Amino acid sequence: MPPVSLWPDPDALGPITDLYELTMMAGYAASGMAEKRATFELFVRRLPPGRAYLVFAGLEQAVGDLLRLKFTEEQAGYLASLPAFAHVDPTWFEALPYLRFQGDIWSVPEGTVVFPGETLLRVEAPLAQAQWVETFLIASLNYPTLVASKAARIVEAAHGRSCVDFGTRRGHGPHAGFLAARAAYLAGFDGTSHVEASRLLGIPPVGTMAHAWVQSFETERAAFAAFARVFPENTTLLVDTYDTLEGVRHAAEIEPPVKGVRLDSGEVGALSKAARAILDAAGRRATKIFASGDLDEWKIGELVRVGAPVDAFGVGTELITSRDAPALSMVYKLVAIDGHGRVKLSPGKRTFPLAKQVYRRRDGQGRFAGDHVTRWDEKAEGEALLSQVVSEGQLVGELLTLAAIRERCRSQVSALPGVLRGPDPTGVYPISYSDVLESAAKTLGL
């Protein structure tokens, strides 16, 4: 199955980049450098506050869309009209509609737990092409990785209780809902409220009802009864439009018994216990309690700790915006030209030269014990994380299915040392660099 695109028009993505990528491309052509073989690597400089690991996500869309990158003639004409390109040879613009990415890409698999400073994705291509895709790759991988990392923390906090993505309406634009639904699902969420993401990606759709439904009827009882008639097999009633516990009592009267009640406000711990008592007393022991309303990993973790009888959590704003840590320092840096190492020496932004591989070691209990970064052709102890996914502009084999990514993420997070897990981790994961890389960096002045 080919990669799924989440773009409304996946065939005109060439200019989805920063202007300076295109000016550099034109400059390389004018300087006779466009075909030099370049190696760029994508990594995260540092972890956001409160994070001990990240979950790599977004590769399917990043690669699938990158391989379709192209310019229309109209887009090429627009670039030619810009003052910045006034002195560029017109033949460069004429060639743009025929430009395609024809390089090679290596990547860690989606769903892999990753750490700062280590290579997540490597591009080897003619210099102009490798430059062209910088912005697109960062934008395609940065946000899904951010959301998947947040989702993994929420799933851990829930301790086996179901989590559902309710974030679509809170995202930064409609497209964010697609990306977040997928990222959350691969990190362990069980469903999404986003209908089109469900259809495209095979994620179970989940939804309850809105306060507007209840408000549209003369009484709450009438609203609940009408909803149950229309949706008898999937009735989850929102009980906090007026008085929450009275709403639970009204829900408990419905025949046949409803599937669930949803608490969307108030002190969920106390309300869920009172709701459970009301439902059980009415013989509704099978009716589930679903909680939502600005939940995050800390709130969910506390509800679990105090024994709140909540069966599932709907998470929206905190998930899709990763509100406590809403940005990643993901970058894409040149590390070699024609096989010769290149470094960046800026304070706080220094890089190691040459194409790399990352090896992950485990201890006797199967826990991650440390990562060792080497030159691409060195061998080291542990699992080699980067493998080739694109060769000469074509996919190599098939990417992991979403189900396989989901299982990989579950396995990866469970293999983390205890000090790196939970909402408030206390440890730092060890990462080392090979003597070959250290020597090359020293030679280049690092």
Question: What are the salient characteristics of this protein?
Answer:
single chain, 446 residues, alpha/beta, nicotinate phosphoribosyltransferase, TIM Barrel, 2 domains, 7-stranded antiparallel sheet, 6-stranded parallel sheet, 16 helices, 36% helix, 18% strand, globular
What's the short version?
This protein is α/β, with parallel strands linked by helices. The protein has 16 helices and 19 strands.
Shape: globular
Mean pLDDT: 95
CATH superfamily of the largest domain, called what? nicotinate phosphoribosyltransferase
How many domains make up the 3D coordinates? Answer: 2
CATH architecture of the largest domain: Alpha-Beta Barrel
Based on secondary structure, the structural category is alpha/beta
In the CATH scheme, what's the topology name of the largest domain? nicotinate phosphoribosyltransferase
Q: Rg from C-alpha positions?
A: 25 Å
Strand order of the largest sheet: 13-12-1-5-3-17-18
Distance between the termini: 44 Å
The portion of residues assigned to helices is: 25-40%
Number of helices: 16
Query: Quick one: biggest sheet?
Result: 7 strands, antiparallel
Low-confidence segments, given as residue ranges, are: none
Instruction: Give me the count of strands.
Output: 19
- Beta-strand fraction estimate: 15-25%
Q: What is the CATH C-level name of the largest domain? A: Alpha Beta
